[in-house]
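User: structure tokens for this one?
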Amino acid sequence: MIRGYEDFLRELGRAGFSLAGGSAKGIWSVVPFSWEEQPYITDSPIRWHTEDPETDPWEWRMRVLEEGRGIAYAKLFFRIGGYITREWYPYFLAVRRGSMDFADCYAEGTLSYQAKRVYEAAKSVPRVLVPELKSMAAFGREENAAFEQALTELQMRMFLTICGQKRRRNKYGEEYGWHCTELTTVEQFWGEDFVLAAGELDPAEAEERIARRVLELNPAAKKGTIRKFIRG
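Assistant:
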């Protein structure tokens, strides 16, 4: 049973990847229950949205990033949050991007124009808060949905990833408002050499390796669900 943050890290390291949010989606999740199911779980110290860094899974999303644990967290699976360790990230990247950079994928027609606007703005700085990125990419208020879709698209295709959270600052340098998600390119997060090496892997072999691990974690996982999980 996962009883706290260290248990979570150990189990995630063993597995290599996990859905976040307490939903396995037919695959696997380190924490097997969501906040909606929490009232019915009485034998676990894990409690969602308490802001306790030891027992609140919501806090672990940013904690693994802030501590530099070699774990990526982003909207990676089924357009929702998930974790992948450094060991397993190259296999997913090989399947979803291979050796192609953003320009290659865009030219191929597999990425949207809205994603292009967001990515070109994001890659111009080392890391950026989401509200600032929206402004940099010149998305108006009427384009909120398109902007959010582009963010998800870029995370699922492994071009952008979450790197932390911060509060915004006014012109005097004073923090204000809620914490905002901070994004960076996958190359900035892992390093150029890491991404290039992942691009050399055989996509079919990478997909097969991930599929075998999914079935080790969840023998009941269905073939179609596994394929969608891996390919994004």
